[in-house]
Amino acid sequence: MRRFITDHIDSVEQLEILLLLHQHPERSWTAESVARELRISALSADDRLKDMARSGILAKVQGSEVEYRYAPSQQLGDVVAGLATAYAERRVTVINLIFSKPIDKIRTFADAFRLRRDDDDNG
Questions:
Q1: Which parts of the chain fold into alpha helices (H)?
Q2: Which class for 99: exposed (0-12), middle (13-18), buried (19 or more C-beta within 10 A)?
Q3: Inter-residue contact 72 to 80 (CB < 8 Å)
Q4: Which pLDDT belongs to residue 101?
Q5: Which residues have a Cβ under 8 Å from the Cβ of 89 and sit 6 or more positions away?
Q6: N-term to C-term CA, the chain
Q7: The pTM is what?
């Protein structure tokens, strides 16, 4: 689940959109309908929906309007179901995982630089 968050979830807003569609897998959603339901910007909802469609979590539904439906692979679906449970039971922990991502990447970069510098000092 931690890897899924690292690879696919960039914000709490994106997580909320994913969980909304996960709750209603039979329904197709437009960016406007997601925005209305979650009280967010339609432009932001559109960007998030497109991102999740590109990553294979959602399917684009053919029609007069651009709509999306929750349609992950079985493996991704299992992870999302676990994430939904974790978010319901340990919301703060999941949110902290989302917000800790950039710090982890910066720390990894800084550690790599420090190791390289230490190697240079010894050589």
A1: 2-8, 12-23, 31-38, 42-54, 74-89, 91-122
A2: exposed
A3: yes
A4: 72
A5: none
A6: 41
A7: 0.79
